[in-house]
Write a structure and sequence with these properties.
By secondary structure, this protein is α/β, with parallel strands linked by helices. It has 16 helices and 13 strands. It has a 7-stranded parallel β-sheet, sandwiched between helices. A 6-stranded parallel β-sheet has the order 10-9-8-11-12-13, with helices on both faces. Strand 1, helix 1 and strand 2 form a beta-alpha-beta unit. Helix 5 (101-115) packs across helix 6 (131-143) and helix 10 (240-248) crosses helix 14 (359-371).
Length: 412
C-alpha cells in the first residue's frame, strides 16, 4: 500500500478534530501517512487524538520571505523537472484572476513541497479545496504525482467557480462532507463526476453514551438555572452576535447561564456586546479546551445552541462537528437551517431549528426548550439515535479506503 502525503493548512488545530480523527482512522486502517502543513500550530493545547497519530509532520515556509534560501533552493531544483513549465503556465494563468501575495506564496510552497518530496510518498491528498489545493495542484504538475482532495465548507463557498472547476478537472477525485457541498461541487465537476459524499461522523469510542440522568431544570429556579452551551470559534459565520441578542431577549422570569467554549477573532467584541446587553453576568467564556473537557461540558449542560449563518463573502459551516458531538451525548440542539445542519437535524423531530439571522425566532426556540425538559429529552434521544446509526466515522474511513484503492488500481 502506498504512503500518502497529506497536505494540511495547519496542524495540529483544536478546531479541526474531524481531520485528526480521519488521520488516525486511516492509520488504524493500515495506511502509512506523512503530514505536511502550510502553517505551524498556534493553539496552546492539543486534543488526545493528536498524540495518537504516528505520522511524522513537517512544515512548509508559512511566508516565503521568512525562509528565502529554502524557497530559492527549491525553485532552482524543480525548474528542471519535466512538469515545472506546466505548473508555471498554470500559475501565470491563475495570477491575473487572483493577483495576491497568497498566489505567489502557493507557488513557492508547491516548489518546496516538490523539492523536498519524501521518497516513499506515492500519493498526495489535501484537506481543503481553496489554498491548500492550489499548492497541491501546482506540486502535482511539477512532479507528476496524482492528487486528491477533501473539501469541507468555507473552502467551497468562498472559492470562485473557475478555480473549483479547474481543480476538480485536475484532481483524481474529491470528497466532501455535506450533501449541499456535494451538489455544488458535482455541478462544477462537469462530465468528470469525480465528487463523492462522505460524512465525517464521530469516533463513537471517544463519545460513548452518557449514562447519567439529564436534569429537569426548566428555568424557574434562580438557584439552579438552565445550563446553555455553545462550542465554536468566535467568527462571523457562527452567528454569536445573533445568539447574544436572542439570549438578551429571553423572558425575564427564566433562569439561565450560558457557557461558550472556543477562541476566535471576534471574542472581545462579543464580550463587549454582552456587557451592552446586560447579560455578561450570566455568561462564562471558557476559551479553547481540549476534547476531554468539552465532552464533560456536553454532559453537564442542558441545551446546546449555535446560530450559524451565511456571511457576505459566502462563508458558512457545513455540518458543525460540535453539533454531532453534542447530539451523541443526548444534549438537545437549537440551531439554524444553514447548509448541512438539516442533513442531521430536523425541526420538531430531533431538534429545534430556525432561520438564520432571526434573533426573535431563536429566542422563542430557546425559551421553549428551556421550559420543556421532556421535549429536550425526546428530541435529544432521536438525534442521538441518528448519530449512532448513521454518523460513525468508520463509514467515512471505509469510503476513503475504497477511493484510494480504486485510484491505485487504475494507475497500476
Amino acid at each position: 500500500m502506498k504512503t500518502i502525503l497529506v497536505l494540511l493548512k495547519g496542524y495540529p488545530r483544536l478546531s479541526e478534530t474531524f481531520i485528526a480523527q480521519e488521520l488516525l482512522g486511516l492509520e488504524r486502517a493500515g495506511f502509512s501517512l506523512i503530514l505536511v502543513a502550510m502553517r505551524r500550530p498556534t493553539d496552546k493545547k492539543r486534543h488526545p487524538v493528536h498524540d495518537e497519530i504516528r505520522a511524522p509532520v513537517w512544515y512548509l515556509p508559512e511566508y516565503l520571505h521568512e525562509e528565502p534560501v529554502r524557497v530559492l533552493r527549491a525553485l532552482w531544483k524543480v525548474r528542471r523537472f519535466p512538469g515545472f513549465n506546466r505548473a508555471l503556465k498554470a500559475f501565470l494563468k491563475d495570477l491575473p484572476r487572483d493577483v495576491s501575495r497568497n498566489r505567489f506564496r502557493r507557488f513557492g510552497q508547491a516548489a518546496v513541497l516538490t523539492a523536498e518530496w519524501p521518497k516513499d510518498a506515492g500519493w498526495l491528498h489535501v484537506h481543503f479545496i481553496h489554498t491548500p489545493a492550489s499548492v497541491a495542484r501546482y506540486a502535482s504538475m511539477m512532479n507528476g504525482m496524482a492528487w486528491t482532495v477533501s473539501a469541507h465548507a468555507k473552502d467551497i463557498w468562498t472559492s470562485p467557480d473557475w478555480e473549483l472547476r479547474e481543480k476538480l478537472a485536475d484532481a483524481d477525485w474529491a470528497v466532501t462532507c455535506t450533501r449541499v457541498g456535494y451538489d455544488q461541487l458535482t455541478m462544477l465537476s462537469g462530465a468528470r463526476r469525480n465528487v463523492h459524499l462522505s460524512y465525517h461522523g464521530l469516533d463513537l469510542d471517544r463519545f460513548p453514551p452518557f449514562t447519567g440522568a439529564r436534569s429537569a431544570r426548566d428555568g424557574s429556579n434562580p438557584a439552579d438555572p438552565v445550563r446553555l452551551l455553545s462550542v465554536g470559534r468566535a467568527v462571523p459565520k457562527k452567528g454569536y452576535d445573533v445568539l447574544l441578542e436572542a439570549l438578551a431577549s429571553l423572558p425575564a422570569d427564566l433562569a439561565w447561564n450560558f457557557v461558550h467554549i472556543g477562541g476566535g477573532d471576534v471574542l472581545s467584541r462579543l464580550k463587549e456586546q454582552a456587557e451592552r446587553l446586560g447579560i455578561a453576568g450570566r455568561i462564562t467564556w471558557k476559551g479553547a479546551l481540549d476534547q476531554r473537557d468539552v465532552l464533560q461540558h456536553y454532559r453537564d449542560s442542558d441545551l446546546f445552541t449555535l446560530a450559524c449563518r451565511i456571511t457576505e463573502d459566502g462563508d458558512r459551516d457545513g455540518l458543525p462537528n460540535v453539533m454531532v458531538e453534542a447530539a451523541s451525548q443526548g444534549l438537545p440542539v437549537v440551531s439554524t437551517t444553514v447548509s448541512g445542519i438539516t442533513e442531521l437535524f430536523a425541526d420538531g423531530e430531533n431538534s429545534l431549528l430556525v432561520a438564520p439571522e432571526n434573533a426573535e425566532a431563536l429566542a422563542a426556540a430557546l425559551t421553549r426548550m428551556i421550559r420543556e425538559p421532556d421535549l429536550r429529552r425526546n428530541l435529544a434521544a432521536r438525534a442521538e439515535h441518528k448519530v449512532r446509526t448513521e454518523f460513525d466515522h468508520k463509514n467515512s474511513i471505509a469510503d476513503l479506503e475504497r477511493l484510494f484503492t480504486a485510484s491505485w488500481n487504475r494507475e497500476n
